[in-house]
């Protein structure tokens, strides 16, 4: 009965002694006098016990029970510590009636003699009522008190110890923020030190460094914070070789020590509680530990037991005791509604107050006092302590002083303030450098009352801040310590909403929930993460902002460029930059190394090889991720030699080898297979000397070379090459190792098709306790289905298609089910790929659909944060859920791709892979390109277009000199059957018959030139019919049709502007019967009609000419006389006539087509128009790399009426003069370089230097500038 205590008792029958579980004595339990938040029920366990569970009941046969409570514990009945769970001061769920027992097993056991329960909420029908039971077991440990002077020396049996394995365990508690706990060192420089620094635990280990400094073994790891709270903390250090587990209060860090050594070499002894002398590894004043330790063990030896039995040296202790001294401090804990009122001297001329505080908030009220004629305020502002004194209304009777910086760091800081007549002094942490003095003519008369931590009265003199969140201790008023015990008993002062004899500060940044190097900052209630510069985003910097591979960028419609990729998403690998090359067939990822091509190697021998180290633009782990996900990798190696043997084939020991990814030596060379000691010529049997398997092994005086591709990707990349035969006279070698090139991304296309509603795949339990992310693509025609699910006892996580337009993400971490839902404006069961990503962390839950639609739900401020799952992870339906029908691919969970295809191959109702990619990605094939299905993705077939590239967006064009022409036969000669396979069937598909008549045609091209007149395009026939586009002498464009029935050809002047201005211009002409539609550049289309007398059939088309006409038969003499000589000089690009791309066929000799050309034709995109595809702006492009070429965007400003027109006229005149000068320079430069076989484009850079509106628009187009810059010069070879 006497073991129970309480804050108050309603009456004798409600005494705390009756508060035993299931007992009905007295009034059936404990109830306090007042039901408010100041009440508590306390149990004295008689000695320290290990407590594992707590159970509660309401008061018997009543309406009194407690619905929510907190648990405090203590060794002494003072200095209470609240029970923490999931990073918060935990609030336990209580009862909802009088008889039911609610038991809570503690997530981590606590050791204490005293327990105190603080009711937070209670029955609405009654009052606080409580019966309790405490569960646990006995606890005993040897305790030692360290006075800051004595050190325990644990002497080794040998003078020098070479230790491979260490296990150190101990518990400590202290009120000091500094002190060495464990230290040992050796003469070779090895050491181990465990110490407190600023209330944090620091472990330093050095297993050895060499004299040259190339191996540095020093390793430092920090754990915990606020450890100067005079509560017990448990430390476990486990080391095996370089692997270390460092555990503090259930939080374990795993790390490897720096350097290359495994043994800890210590001399003589290991010290506990301090350093017996100044050690070598650390310098400066290091304090000994002051506080208590218990259960000290080192490698199986009980140190505290050895001390008790006087087996160890304790001569340094003045008074060694085996008990723990009580703390002499009395802490006060303030929240946003708290204050503590203390009395002081009234009508006195001096103010002297002092205290210590700790907080995370940058601002708050520390002290406020009303003076007889003024006020005193001491507050925290932006991490500084500021004191403000005002007396009377006169401005000269005000004093403001401030000191300190960053005082909201959670550590204890000491403040002392003194004000008397004409003098004010503020001191922080007793530091003389912090002292701020002010000599101001003021006269102070104290009011006699001081408010600490809050002031909520509405008085004439009010503080700038109202409250403070944090802790205070060692409060002094008028140089006298405040008797806070008397305050707690109601004898002295007053308080509201404060917790006495307790500091409930929580470090929300320890452990740090900000991932990937995110910076954690906190206030009293919450923490936040700054992810700047990390490459990650989200509330905890968990989600990568980059795509996983070049393959993923391609399927966002991205062109070849340098990109950041993050293969493991939210995993531990950092993002890195690679070169992505998007070709029509494949996507190549290139990682560069630092070895220059043709690196000379001399002076090496078999006994002393020259080792060339290759460093890549990515780490080993990053490279492994690239090669592991790739379908194919290659790396070119080349060894140029003169009297330098390579592999010493056929049977000798190799002179040269290379080292791959796993650190193993390899004795095969490029072009050979792994394990076969040959070069490429040995595999192909074409070596210079057939007796050897490498050209260099013939040891000839002439320069030879062995080169080829290394393609076994498990060995790549090459990290070292050791060369061993260049030390003889005349012996030379040059080594080239190319970049690593990989294609494909198996994880991106790893897919499974679910064919029945009951089919599913199962995987091991998902581990995502505090941070979890899931991402995948799906496509379906079904209206609903469960994507995946994982269950625990009560916890679960589920992603589901709930309706044709809604995705649901639901989970439970112990606080009750939560659900996020995202709706799409369009149906999701459209059999196209959609991307889903979900994330849950301690701050929030996020669900995203197609990177556009997003819902965020903050996590509760108090509650469970750990997701505990036990069942298998089911992908698809399980447990009676509605099954998913369709495809899922690229399923990633916490950065790890699940191998759906492997599991689907052995699972009924599920098939590996998924078809139909073109339904989602076909839109990326532009300009008439056709989407072609592949097993892993798709490709764009550009063969029937005038374009090429991964998305058929790259113009194919050429530069024509005078006299150059291209002829494409539209009625090709019959070819033999064997040869017909080499012909591009797409390009000749419309011209199968010898006599082709057209009633409609479409012609598209772009050009740039400064010369007139000329023929741009001419389509001939076997009759008089023809079609021609000519550039007239004045630079205007004319379309000429002669289809018969007219005495003269029908001519259309397309525009009155001079188009021979060196700028690119695009032309689009289409005809259907008599209707002709023409679009020039960006202007609206214009329609024309052939005369009624004209025929509408283009009879017997024969050939298409570009640049000039060289044809037999009937030709319009006007064309020959006016336009055909000397021919077109300039650039033509993306020429397409119906499905024919004649210029592309002429420039791409790899396909056989009925095309020929005369004169010099050099590929160039100088005639390309930039207006086809607008580029993505850098502002909306998260993958845009800074530091690249920048292209200005000039926004045209509209000048309203009324502005100064003279300025505009003067500006126009100046622009004309400048333009004339530029044109003259352009002409001179063109004339000079034409004779050198070089072609220059000299386009205007912006609208100010243009001579027409369309060129002004083109000049402000960033993509246009880039197009021109890429081919300013073309060399004719």
UniProtKB/TrEMBL annotation:
Disulphide bridges: 887-914
Topology with respect to the bilayer: Single-pass type I membrane protein
Gene Ontology annotations of biological process type: cell adhesion
Keyword Cell inner membrane among record annotations: no
Residue span(s) of domain F5/8 type C: 1-137
Membrane-spanning residues: 1208-1229
Location(s) in or outside the cell: Cell junction, Paranodal septate junction; Membrane
Pfam families (alphabetical): F5_F8_type_C, Laminin_G_2
Location of the Laminin G domain: 143-324, 329-503, 750-914, 978-1166
Residue span(s) of domain Fibrinogen C-terminal: 541-593
Family: Belongs to the neurexin family.
PANTHER family in the cross-refs: CONTACTIN-ASSOCIATED PROTEIN-LIKE 2 (PTHR15036:SF33), PIKACHURIN-LIKE PROTEIN (PTHR15036)
Protein name: Contactin associated protein 2
Organism of derivation: Electrophorus electricus
Name of the encoding gene: CNTNAP2
